[in-house]
Each structure stands twice: as structure tokens, then as C-alpha cells.
């Protein structure tokens, strides 16, 4: 199970910057970092998600190279950030891009499961 969690963390961690690169390349950031969406600079939202991506990538790498016990705290931290990013993005996508709702819901559920696993292990799920 640890390896599956590592793969999920790496996929999610790589997917977040890929999403934002695609978002930028499609011209939806006309003012770059100064773009305002719903009254806020989007750069802060993007930064929070990129930090989350870095945490997820780091957690996946530590699991692979050092084992889950060494990664437990990092997985919990990455999962918490991912829960925030997933729920926040779920709110945005429900207003703008309904196709992404399922993806963000799934990511949020994976993050909750990963946080629980980091605290208790799979045997406690039963």
C-alpha cells in the first residue's frame, strides 16, 4: 500500500503544476501574476497549490527512497495541504468548470484517506 500511496502523491504532485501550466498556456492568465479572479490575485491560489504539489512530490519520494515510517509526518502535512487545495478548487470548479468537480472530489477523498493512513495505518480502516 505504501508504494501505491507514493505513486498517487507523485501523480497529484506532478498534476498540479501541469494543470497550471496548461491554464497559463491557454491564455487564461492575461495579466500573468497580476491577473485578478473574483476580486483576488490568482497568484496566491496558484502559489498555495504549487507548495502543495511540492509537498506531495516530496512525500512520494521519501516513501519510495526511505519508506513510509520516515515519510509519515510529511504525508500528513501534504495531505492536509491537499485537502485544503482540493476543497478550495472544488468550490471554484463548481462555479466555472463542472468537469473538474469529480477530479477535485476524488483528490480530496484521496487526501483524507492519506491523512488517516499517516496517522493510523491501513489496519485501522477495517
Topology:
Layout (H helix, E strand, L loop, with lengths): L1 H24 L10 E2 L2 E2 H25 L1 H29 L3 H21 L6
Antiparallel strand pairs: 1-2
Helix pairs in contact: 1-2, 2-3, 3-4
Give a short overview.
This protein is mainly alpha-helical.
How would you describe this structure to a colleague?
- This is DUF8058 domain-containing protein.
- Residues 5-117 form the DUF8058 domain.
- InterPro entries: DUF8058.
- Keywords: Membrane, Transmembrane, Transmembrane helix.
- The chain crosses the membrane at residues 42-66, 73-92, 98-118.
- There is one protein chain.
- Helix content is 79%, strand content 3%.
- The chain has a two-stranded antiparallel sheet.
- The two termini are 14 Å apart.
- α1 packs antiparallel against α2 (42-66), α2 (42-66) packs antiparallel against α3 and α3 runs antiparallel to α4 (100-120).
- The chain contains 4 helices and 2 strands.
- The chain is elongated and about 45 Å long.
- With 126 residues, the protein is mainly alpha-helical.
- It has one domain (2-125).
